[in-house]
Amino acid sequence: MPRKQKSRNEIKVQRGIELMKRFAEIGEVPPINKDFFYRLQVLPFFLGLEKSQIFDAIREKKLPPPVSLTDNGRARGYFGYQLLAIQAKAKEVA
After folding, report:
1. pLDDT mean values, one per 10 residues, the chain (94 residues)
2. What pLDDT was estimated at residue 59?
3. Taking Cα atoms as reference points, which of 42, 2, 6, 47 lies closest to residue 21?
4. Which of 6, 18, 35, 75 could hold 10 in an S-S bridge, CB 3.0 to 4.6 Å?
5. What is the CATH number of the domain that holds 49?
């Protein structure tokens, strides 16, 4: 059975995740750009939570629901300004 070829978008997302893993290995997190869109896959690097913890927090309404970029909802995540607000709120609680 032939292997399905990855789309350009899937390749970009995979490269972004690999880049984030490299930052995590050296113990750094790149700064958040308020105008960028961050997909759910990279949130653990910025929020310090596991994926399951992020989904639990969304379900429990501790985090706002992610934004869907398309009608089918495959590309979901947060804009940088939303992540910065989430981080600021977390610092207030701590």
Report:
1. 70 72 72 89 85 92 90 86 90 77
2. 94
3. 42
4. 6
5. 1.10.1660.10
From the number of C-beta atoms within 10 Å of its C-beta (0-12, 13-18, 19+), residue 3 rates as: exposed
So what's the pLDDT on residue 80? 92
User: Residue 55: its pLDDT value, please?
Assistant: 92
The SS3 assignment for 16 reads helix
Do residues 84 and 47 touch, judged by C-beta distance below 8 A? no
Burial (CB count within 10 angstroms: exposed 0-12, middle 13-18, buried 19+), residue 74: exposed
- Report yes or no on 70 lying in a domain: yes
DSSP sequence for 25-79: HTT--PPPPTTSEEEGGGHHHHH---HHHHHHHHHTTSSPPPEESSTT--SEEEE
**What is the total count of domains within the chain?**
1
Range of the domain at 68: 32-93
